[in-house]
Amino acid sequence: MIFLIIGAIITLLILLVVCENYRSKRSIGKYLTANYGRPHDNAEERRERIADAANLYLHDVKNLSGTEIVDDITWDDLGMDDIFVSADHTDSYAGAQYLYSRMRRLDATEDELHEHDKRAAFFDKNEEKRLAVRRHLHSIGQVYSGFRLIDNIDIIGSAHLKFRKAFPLLGLLQLGTVIAAAVTQNPVIIFLGLVVLIANMIIHTITKGMVDVQFQTILNAAAVISAARNIAEEVPEFSKEIKPDIDKMSGMLRKARYLIFEKNAEVTKDMFMNILFFFINTFMIDLFCYDIVIDDLDRNAEEFRRIYRFAGSMDYDISLASYRRYIGNYCIPEFTEKPKLELKGVCHPMINDAVRNDFVQKRSTIITGSNASGKSTFIKSAALALIMGQTLHTCHAESAVLPRCGIMTSMAVRDDLLSGESYYIREIKYLKRMVELCESGKTMFLAVDEILRGTNTRERIAASKALMEYFSKQNCMVIVATHDIELAEFFAEKCDNFHFCEKVEDGNVVFDYKMHEGISRTSNAIRLLGAMGFPDSIVADAEKYVE
């Protein structure tokens, strides 16, 4: 009877575990199905992890030139953090890091871009495969420690235990004393066994505490390898190149199995299993496994990095498909070897119901217009189309023909109180980096908002003319927004001129945000004073002084 009761309890426990796994799997499936084609609901959390998402890019950038990346100034000028969060539909930290790196690198070949397009289209059409792959990516997750994984792999060789050969001996010593005590039942040997047991407990606890980060690195690495192996089985047509690396590292999963079981017991807070593991580990089994797995990761670090990128790229492809479905109105650009930009119906990706504009740029362009009329937003839209076209192969436009070019901006210049640099000093530093990269010979797209506004009118116009003259002799496509009509008129023969304007309706200044040909002949600075409710006397005096 007792055995029947025990058997029934064990059977019930197994059924409960199976039911819980089924419920969890079904719940995850519903979540992954529901959020496809829309952003994740933890956007704020993702924003806080942008610095961690950049880790893979920081590895990649070491091998890239300044013309092949979106530098920090340009990234900040264009508010690319917001766009990254909007485009981040990934399920794993590997995917988030791959996406971030991809959005800051301008070195992708057309073949690479088309390969990602092909995979994104495949996952968009094949819901069953997409869901299966996402389940495996979801098992990697976006745990905080995972974002450090690629850094920790770089230094994994230094993670070996000190006195590593002593731990197997300590384990064998304890095993020997336990067996001897059980066989002889000698009080002295039993006491000796207790001393060894307590000593091993203390040594184990201290040692494991010292390598806790590396333990988590092993578990994260195992999660990535396991997910990559499962993904490769789901989509073998996309996995041929990575299969040898996965096969080579599958042995590490077997060696890490004990550590994974131990971690699962800890996560599930299974008291019995945790007590059992605590006792077993006094034989130093987990530390012995740890050191063997560290050896594997150290020897096969390059293979692991490729596996990591493979998992990240699969996540990226599904994220790209989801993002494209989310934004709806987008185009895949064409590329030209000429320094020519053609945008039809382009708009800013972060503005709802944005006004779309057409733009063809064959030479440098100067845009004039009133305050708040749309100059800066349009320049950002054009720069973003060039960046997202070359990185995500996705433009917020009806159609786009893009040059393969480097991209730099000077827009959101600020004083730096900590370094004591004035607005003007920082502005000329921003422009200096443009001048230096123009000397590389590669086509550069340069966007400047209110060029040299940090100094007086006379010197600003003189210096702006000199800069524009210099850029016109380089392999550059320059677009400048300015209030200086004199600058636009001076370059009327060498540059294309466009403007944004407004009209007054019922005392209010109304903008259409449409770009028009030619130089703006109006200003709204004083009218805006009136529209914002300033006293009539101030507005009247301002109009008198401007005359």
Describe this structure in words.
The strands form three sheets. A six-stranded mixed beta sheet has the order 6-7-8-4-9-12, with helices on both faces. The chain has a four-stranded mixed beta sheet with strand order 1-5-2-3, covered by helices on one side. The chain has a two-stranded antiparallel ribbon with strand order 10-11. The model has no long low-confidence stretch (mean pLDDT 83). It has helices at residues 2-34, 43-48, 50-53, 55-60, 72-77, 80-87, 93-104, 110-125, 127-140, 149-154, 166-184, 187-210, 212-234, 243-268, 271-280, 285-299, 301-327, 375-391, 423-438, 457-472, 485-490, 525-531, 536-546, and strands at residues 334-336, 341-346, 357-361, 365-369, 399-403, 406-410, 444-449, 476-481, 496-500, 502-505, 508-511, 516-517. β7 (444-449), α20 (457-472) and β8 (476-481) form a beta-alpha-beta unit. It is built from 23 helices and twelve strands. The chain has 547 residues and is of the alpha/beta class. It has two domains: 35-161 and 211-327, MutS, DNA mismatch repair protein, Chain A, domain 3; 334-546, 3-Layer(aba) Sandwich (Rossmann fold).
